[in-house]
Amino acid sequence: MVKTYPGGNDVVAARIGKNAETLRKELSGTDPKFKLGENTAQLISDLCIEDKSPNCFAYVNAVASSSGGFIQLPVLDTPPMLTLHKGVAEIVQEMSHVVTAVTESDADNVISDNDLSRTLKEIQEARSALQSLEQAIRTKHAAGKPSHLRAA
Hints:
By secondary structure, the chain is mostly helical. It has two domains: 8-65, no CATH class; 84-149. It is 61% helix and 0% strand. It has six helices and no strands. The chain has helices at 8-16, 20-28, 38-51, 58-65, 84-105, 113-143. Helix 5 packs antiparallel against helix 6. The longest helix is centred in the last third of the chain and has 31 residues, at 113-143. The mean pLDDT is 85. Keywords: Coiled coil. Residues 116-143 form a coiled coil. Pfam families: Phage_CP76.
């Protein structure tokens, strides 16, 4: 989350009131003298969510998933698709990529780092297609309502 935050480590450190080098060491996890605490992780998460930086929900989803929960991600602000049918077709295509990646990754009964990376990339692309379709459906739904009933 810190790497993808605009300005990276230096900006995040300044925003949460930490020395940039200290934060870097805490995040690296290589020095036992520097440990990232739960409060700092929550501050970073809150900062990233507030600014809608990439992967901003990673921490809260990791915490939630460890207890069997799931945080519903907000719909991305993307332009609506031309047609809902095209959106459904895109989802089917992306899900087929997920199935292929999972099947190939697990073929030898071991998931390597490369397998994991490729599979997660395909899952993210499928999730993005789902979010785009959701946005298109919401847009079409709102367009069909009289103007006085549309959300502001």
